[in-house]
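Quick question, first post here. What does this chain look like in 3D?
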Amino acid sequence: MRRGHWIACLAATGVGLLVAVTSLVRAQATPSGVQPPSGVQILQDLRSFRELGSVLYIAAHPDDENNQLLAYFAHGRYYRTAYLSLNRGDGGQNELGPEFGEELGVIRTQESLAARSVDGARQFFSRAFDFGYSKSPEETLRIWDHQQVLSDTVRIIREFRPDVLITRFSPPPSNTHGHHTASTIIAQEAFKISGDPKAFPEQIAEGLTPWQPKRILFNGGGGTSVLRINDGGNDPVSGESFASIAGRARSMHKTQGFGNFAGGGAGGARAESFQLLDGESAANDILDGVDTTWGRFPGGADIGKLTDDAIAQFKQDDPAASILALLAIHAKLATLPKDPVADEKRAQLNRILQNCLGLSVQTTIPSAEVVPGEELKMHSTALVRSSVPVKWVSTRYPGGSGQITSADPINLTPNQPASRDSSRILPASTQLTTPYWLRQDHTQGMARVDDPSLIGRPGNLLAYPLEQIFEVGGETLTIPDEPVQVTSDPVKDETRRRLDVIAPVALSFANDVQLFTPGSTKSVEVEVTAYRPVDKGALRLDVPTGWKVTPATQPLHLAAVGDKAKATFSITAPAQLTSANITAMADINGAHFANERIVISYPHIPVQMLQPLARFKAVSLDLAIHGKKVGYLPGAGDSVAAALEQMGYAVTQLTGADLTPEKLRGLDAVVIGVRAFNERTDLADNLPGLFAYIEQGGTVIAQYNRPNGLRTQALGPYNLSIAGQAPPLRVTDENAPVQILAPDHPALTTPNKITAADFDGWVQERNAYLPSSWDEEHYTQLLAMSDPGETQPSSSILVAKYGKGYYVYTAIGWYRQLPAGVPGAYRLFANLVSLGK
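> Answer (accepted):
Ran it through. Tokens below.
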């Protein structure tokens, strides 16, 4: 089509194009150096645009989802598909590195998003925290705050508007995690009330409207009444089987140990079963009785017909030929009333139009890290690949105070990048980058999120959003954009890092816990790292009543980025046994910064920035130790070695090759890290040397291991087994009563007298993966504890005399208790290390 004739045709349509992009769907502009979507991909997007059916899958944790079913719904049937994980996996284990708790939840959030980018679904989360294994839904819903999690789930249903809910786990309690059963209980309750305007009326006041799904199904079950569908087959675009797509998605959960799931998979038939939990019955398909066409909107039937025509006439080798048809669809779509689904479809049509034009935009910044109040220098580039005339009108800056537009129209020439430079001041009030659910202290089971618009989102809003404004034949096209730092690597492809808002300095303490004798004074050092020069500032510690610190402030001067300074404060603990959080604070140019800086970087997820409060837990306790030197053989990763140093021990890091009597001579004890028998390849062959060290008078403490994946069954010098546990033997109630079985044993008397009070204030759980059998002639059981209504083996701590020394196998989660500053955990662990001294 000739250039002038194309403009005339556009003008004749009289169609105005202003595409609103909702917060639920943000189109990612294709950078100029990246190949745009192919014609067949755009055609599939059009088919997806035509489809109005939607499904919300609900379970408890990242990795609970059915990836093949999600891929089938999203890629095979073009449904709007999403997964709601009630928590972020914060309480689990980490197969990749040392991050636990909040940091692990951040990683698993990104792993979930990586999985969704493969299987095609969207991701939601509630505010619930994964507080560790739970044996009952009652405990789970008590710790999570039943009403808050229910509110979150109702909110997500009202925002996403699914036609069908699907649960992963059966409603009746079974031999599974309490979180699992609780997720289905919540889903069923939310199904019943999400359409009731009297339920959570504050959401209605915010602008949400009630929404009632057609039915809720359990993905499983058996019997003649069960509905079955086939989710086998292949993706129409790539030809890849849904099974293979599911494997690649599953492999994103690498901290769960699922990195080996990626691989091929046949595209043959696979039956999925569904059991009706509530709502209308379905005879043939999960969406029976659901209008999946545009006819579900008043006046929407014409959109469906126009889309059918556009699909029938679409030319895969010339997507731009469909622009006129797409503009006609947009004109009809603009007449529909505001609605979350319609808004999402408007954003989807926006992306389709952009891809048909071959229009890509990108805004780069010199550095991904910017301090509030600094100038943000941006270089924006636009490129059109088709011959359709496009004018780049302006760049809009909706962030900050009001809408600001930079006007400098540019007529784009096909395949020739155009650019413009601009600069704006990042508002001084901009929040520092840190995951929104971690900005405030949380309870054991729930995050605190004051902005309700954030609830349900997997991550933060953009720190500084942009909009690129274009004219096509006299009509307006708005494309969302954001500043990114682009770097090239000779080995890797170009990488793009989003804008992070940082503090000018980062503060840190050497340890998360500092131990004090009651009434004692201790020197504590704060390290300050400059991310911007600091000409003049002051450093101080914020301490609660009863604690004293001197001096009150110390001067702060850092001449250049990267400079470090250390300041030492003297802290005096109260005379009584107590604990407190102590925070570092930097005062710079009238602003106050109290942040640490944590950067999480793994190849399979984007770089994650956390800037939590720079603080430590000060614990005033009575603690004595025997011995001076301890060797530490790391396992899967923990901070127990740092806790030993806080207790007063000099710690030497060990490898398997060090486990000989000669190399271990001079060490008072050796501690083996958590899951070392699962993770280490150099442990099993060197156990004879370790046992010889014990025989000559040494003490060894082995922390818990998992029964699956043990590299040796020899977990001690005498028979000891954790095999065959189904479910794993554990005590999940951190407040479970503890019975002292051997009150005169040195591990309970020397150098600290252990009493029932030492088991107060424990976190998350008592123990995990208890030994199921052991040589009762040689091992002494020290403690008995069980969850309510159960009787667990008394094998939390087993101690054996072996030659002149001691061997201890302990299922207690020291890697959680010690970093949490639990006083009794320090006292008891000190006794274990002091055995024989």
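DSSP finds 19 helices and 41 strands in the chain.
Residues 27 and 351 are 6 Å apart (CA to CA).
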